[in-house]
Every structure is written in structure tokens, then in C-alpha cells.
Amino acid sequence: MKIFIKNQNKSERVARLIISLFLIPSPFILEKSPNEYELLMELTPFSFAQFIVGVILLFNAFSGMCVIYRFFGANTCKV
Question: Which pTM was predicted?
Fold first, then answer.
């Protein structure tokens, strides 16, 4: 059984890559304090959630596999 089965087409992967590039730097943009060294101590839950979603989308973009698609049996990749 293969673990990483591609189930996304190329345009969907590119869209996920672009969205992830906007979400990943959010903790650095939406910081509370002006001191850059206290960034990790004062992350807002919203910016941390955006960062996590961005990392998941980046993984999906590079691997071509979406776990939710696999769970529901969806496949947008042309075989």
C-alpha cells in the first residue's frame, strides 16, 4: 500500500502553494509586541492557526496528496 498517492491536479497544487506563502509569515506580521525577540512568546492563537494551516497547505502542494481527499475518496488528478 502506497502512503503518498497523488490526488491533486497541478493547478490545485499551485493554488495551495500561493495561499501557503501568504499564511506562513503571519506570525511575523501579526505580532503583538514591537520587540522582534519576544515573537515566540506572544503569538496570538489566530496567527499560530494561520501558520499551521499554511504549513499543511505547503505539504499538500509539494507532495500532491491531500489527506481529506484520500479519506473521502476524491481525486482531481488526471490518471
Answer: 0.79
Rounded to the nearest 10 degrees, the angle between the axes of helix 45-63 and helix 10-23 is: 150
- pLDDT-derived band at 52 (thresholds 50, 70, 90) equals very high
Query: What CA–CA distance (Å, rounded) separates 14 from 20?
Result: 10
State the amino acid at position 6 in one-letter form.
K
Burial of 13 from C-beta contacts in 10 A (0-12 / 13-18 / 19+)? buried
> Which of 20, 29, 28 shows the shortest CA–CA distance to 52?
20
